[in-house]
Structure formats: structure tokens, C-alpha cells
Specification:
With 204 residues, the chain is an alpha+beta fold. It contains 4 helices and 10 strands; from the N terminus they run H-E-H-E-E-E-E-E-H-E-E-E-E-H. The chain has one domain: Nuclear Transport Factor 2, Chain: A, CATH 3.10.450. Strand 2 (43-53) and strand 3 form a beta hairpin. The chain starts with a helix and ends in a 26-residue tail after the last helix.
Length: 204
């Protein structure tokens, strides 16, 4: 019975523990790239991963974007006209795998507004954790909301996706996602054959 219970628990955990694949822009649909370049021309630190929300497979594009903030048509104390300000903002956008725009996420700055039922779902999987970042993914097709929460737990960092009931959709080890692919193994070279010592010169 204990073995059967352990097997059931392992199966349940493995079903939600998914390693997101990091992609390059060359792997994205052309339709997506055209839309992205049109509406987000000034970006850096782009990271592309495969995610799942509302039962759909999606591309998530996370990046830093430069935004220009307009200022009132006024002058400063020196009499000079005020100039627009440029700020950097962290942004995440979701697209369907066919290239269609899905939704913009909403960054959560105050973690205490995350619903208690979602926090309880997080605690059930990670009893010892600390939230470092969070975002809300609205449902573009109707009511409902899902969350992506980044945590640290027992020395590791995790990105956890949960629905509005606190059910974990996926959880990803961030360190494993960011680590480069392992270098191919190099076949061992046979040891060089020992060189026989040169014969001593004959005595005259």
C-alpha cells in the first residue's frame, strides 16, 4: 500500500513539473514576429518560452522595453522646455502557437493582493518559499484569471503557474531553464604506445 501511495504521489508531481523550453526568434511564426516588431520596436533581454494557460499552448515573450513618457508642454525653472522621459519596463506578452496575439500579463507589485486560495495552493507544494515576482494572466475569452509566480524555496528558484482555485498548472526550475546545454561528451583517446628506449651505442 505504501509503495502504491508513493507511486501515485510521484505521478501527480511529475504531471505538473514541466521544464519549459527556451526558444529563439527563428523558431517563432512569421505572423507573430511581425506583430511583435510593430508594437514593441525597442526591446532588450528577450526570453521566449513555451507556456500553458487556459488549456492552450502559448509562447511567452518576456523582455525589457523602453517607453517614452510625454510631459506637459511647460518649461522648467530655467525656462527650458521639458523633455520627454524614457523609462525601462519589464513586460510579458503571450501569443498562440499560430502567431495570434493572446494577452498581455499584468505585473503584480504588491504580493499581498494575490488571493488566499492561490497562496494556499503554492504553500501545499512549497511549504518553505518566498515570492520574488508575480504576474496575473487575464482570460481574454471571458471571466477567470491565472497566475505566474516566481519563488525561491530551499535554495532553488521556481516559476509556478496556478489557476484561480490554487491548482498548479506547471512548475519550472528556473536554474535548469537558464543553464546551457551540456557539452557533448568527448570520446576517450587511447593511450599512446610506450616508446622503446634507443639502443645503447656499440662499444668499439
Amino acid at each position: 500500500m505504501k509503495k502504491l501511495l508513493c507511486a501515485a504521489i510521484c505521478l501527480a508531481v511529475s504531471s505538473i513539473s514541466v521544464q519549459a523550453k527556451q526558444l529563439t526568434k527563428q523558431e517563432l511564426p512569421k505572423k507573430l514576429l511581425i506583430h511583435f516588431s510593430k508594437y514593441h520596436p525597442k526591446t532588450s533581454n528577450l526570453v521566449i518560452t513555451e507556456q500553458k494557460h487556459y488549456g492552450q499552448n502559448l509562447f511567452e515573450l518576456s523582455f525589457t522595453e523602453e517607453l517614452t513618457i510625454k510631459v506637459p508642454d511647460e518649461k522648467d525653472v530655467k525656462g527650458e522646455k521639458l523633455k520627454p522621459k524614457t523609462v525601462s519596463e519589464e513586460v510579458s506578452i503571450f501569443y498562440r502557437t499560430g502567431g495570434q496575439f493572446f494577452i498581455n500579463s499584468e505585473k503584480i507589485y504588491a504580493f499581498n493582493i494575490i488571493p488566499g486560495v492561490v497562496i494556499n495552493g503554492l504553500k501545499a507544494a512549497f511549504p518553505d518559499y518566498k515570492i520574488t515576482a508575480a504576474q496575473l494572466i487575464p482570460n481574454p475569452n471571458g471571466p477567470g484569471e491565472e497566475y505566474e509566480i516566481v519563488i525561491t524555496s530551499l535554495g532553488s528558484s521556481w516559476s509556478v503557474s496556478l489557476d484561480s482555485k490554487g491548482t498548479i498548472i506547471t512548475k519550472e526550475n528556473i536554474a535548469a531553464l537558464a543553464s546551457p546545454a551540456a557539452a557533448p561528451a568527448v570520446a576517450a583517446q587511447p593511450a599512446a604506445a610506450p616508446v622503446a628506449p634507443a639502443p645503447a651505442p656499440a662499444k668499439k
